[in-house]
Amino acid sequence: MSIYRSACPYDCPEGCSLLVETDGNTVTSITGDPANPYTGGWVCAKLHRLPQALASPHRILTPLRRTGPKGSGQFAPVSWEEAIGEIAARWKALMAQYGPETILPYSYAGTMGAVHRNCGEGFFHALGASELKRTLCSSGKSAGWETVMGNSCDLSPWDVAHSDLILLWSTNIPATRAHLAPILRQARANGANIILIDVYENPSAHLAHRCVLLQPGSDGALALSMLQVLDQEGLTDEAWLARHADGWEELKATLGCWTPEKTQSITGLTPETVRELARAYGRAKAPCIVLGSGFSRTGNGGEATRAIAALPAAVGAWAKRGGGTYGVCSSPALIDKSPVKRPDLARLGVQVVNINQLGPALAGQGVKTPIHSLYVYHANPAAVTSDQNAILRGLAREDLFTVVHERYLTDTAKYADLILPAPYMVETTDLYTPYGYRQIQYVRPVVKAPGQVKSNWEVFTLLAAALGLEDPYGSRTPEELCRAMVEASPALSPAEKQRVLAGEPVVLESPFPLPMETDDGKVHLSDPIPTWFAPHGGPEPFRLVCAPAVHTLNSSFNELPALQALRGEMTVRLNGDDAARLGLAHGDRAVCSNDLGEMTCIVALDKAVAPRTVVAEGVYPGKNTVNCLTHPRLSDRGEATTLNDNTVWVRPAP
Length: 654
Ligand SMILES: Nc1nc2c(c(=O)[nH]1)N[C@H]1C(S)=C(S)[C@@H](COP(=O)(O)OP(=O)(O)OC[C@H]3O[C@@H](n4cnc5c(=O)[nH]c(N)nc54)[C@H](O)[C@@H]3O)O[C@H]1N2
Ligand SMILES: Nc1nc2c(c(=O)[nH]1)N[C@H]1C(S)=C(S)[C@@H](COP(=O)(O)OP(=O)(O)OC[C@H]3O[C@@H](n4cnc5c(=O)[nH]c(N)nc54)[C@H](O)[C@@H]3O)O[C@H]1N2
Ligand SMILES: [Mo]
Fold this sequence. Notes:
- This protein is an alpha/beta fold and 654 residues long.
- The chain has three domains: 64-136 and 336-507, Rossmann fold; 154-328, Dimethylsulfoxide Reductase, domain 2, CATH 3.40.228.10; 542-652, Barwin-like endoglucanases, CATH 2.40.40.20.
- α3 packs across α18 (456-466), α4 (114-127) runs parallel beside α18 and α11 crosses α12 (271-283).
- The structure holds ligand MGD (2 copies) and molybdenum atom (MO).
């Protein structure tokens, strides 16, 4: 048995450092690497079971060609030569007829490695394919933050321990920030007050003293009301504001519109609740907002982020250790990924397709050049992307040549003409910089990739050669690319670079106080003045919110039966009074529907939920899952997903 260092490649702020045990052929166990002072010696239930996924009999180990109707899941093995040859021939013919924009790449965050996540961009720029605008996650929040805070980073998770008032705002700690839980317990033991602000009592509730459950899409109104109370009750830090912010006077002049009485019909919160929250925030020594992203996946998510970002400025929280926010922008760009992304190869004016609008794009909407080929890698749009039924209709098109690079037969892969076998992280080389804190780790393979599995970089290198394109990576291997990115990093000292290249997880402290990285070094509070407007919504009576599940990560880990069993059946959570009115009891089956589709699932009444709200945790495999109910509309800023801004009818299942 040998033990090697590795890192978790999943789309998660934690970015755990790992110790992987192998018998030389297979991975026998995965635990946390104590060399990472944040994530330490333990990992989540998902990673703990990853060895079962690596050895799963359902892994795809050779290229496969479709032998049955699209979506039937019938395939037969072909060689890599045949697969690459077929893709090159089909693409050459399509490009000759329609131009290269007829090819659409589709990827998101199956792996977070700098090389394998991003190398497709270099390749597709070189090809001249349609460009994918990748705003599937928290781009609305980032875009809103930037208008107030510029490029400023926020706290590191361990800084939260110094706070005496922690607002867990729209975040599920046990699911998405598990290593923050011990820090929160420590803060609590030191006397910190912890309040969860969400649309339901998510599993973070047991870490909090109290839960404030508001209406989905109303967070901006709550933040503006808190500002109004802080101002009216003299709880703002005028000295900090005068030195470090501009626009406070202008913002202050509008706050009269946002008294807790005026926002009550928006948030559903009593004025007393909002006043108590604002007073607790304003009187705290170092208030900290741990800010998730759920609230921002709405038609007003950018604006809501702007109002929330004004709160720490109003009370001068950034000047106090532990004060400010954690979770917005906790990791500065430690490396420059352009050697793999190759922005210099991007063609001016090329057709852009928003990642959230795959369904409409495949139906010819919003595109000048129709899409005749789709290349999906490290993403599962048939499960995770809005308007599932439109996507499935598009994937079923006989004239769409679809290639999916995957590890197992996902809902998307079932529709492929060709499937290419993909690796797990223990089989590849890459460089990881998690987005939840300042960390970097270089990872080498621990075991040989099984069967004929090839990495994203290998496939794009083969495709470039087959299509007669110059190698977009300058003929450099993943090892050479990682080394070049580490060596060019302005954020790392020579000693840190050496440690990174030796495979150690290198964790950097956040500076205190954090620099305000805007053009003038000030927080911008009225650029324009934050406001609240109604999200997209819809005519149906219940607001539908998608939330993360503890035992899966988006659609990843759906391949592990043990985790699926722990997660249980597809469920929606409802407010008890709403359920009673509808005649629904805990465990009943209900149908949620709107103009896009219909989903049947179990009803759970075990957790408090805001009135007129329906919460669906997790992404399940199959058809008629939650994204058959989510519209492909975009957020106010950042052209981001509005996954949490939909409405549905709810009725007992027949
Ligand atoms: N176990 C697990 N880990 C994960 C993931 C997962 O699915 N499972 N997902 C990964 C990914 S891709 C990401 S982006 C990160 C972060 O993942 P995010 O999806 O950003 O999740 P969180 O930040 O934990 O929390 C989202 C919370 O927002 C709440 N919410 C939804 N709408 C509103 C609203 O209008 N107002 C308020 N106040 N709350 C609202 C939901 O109820 C939920 O509790 O986690 C990553 N880690
Ligand atoms: N209803 C609902 N929808 C959601 C969410 C939700 O919570 N609820 N979350 C949203 C969020 S925040 C996000 S970020 C997106 C995430 O959406 P995606 O990025 O599509 O994430 P996953 O569903 O995890 O699918 C990733 C796929 O990549 C594959 N993969 C992993 N590594 C590699 C590799 O090295 N090469 C190749 N070729 N494939 C690989 C995995 O096997 C997996 O099938 O989903 C969004 N959609
Ligand atoms: Mo995400």
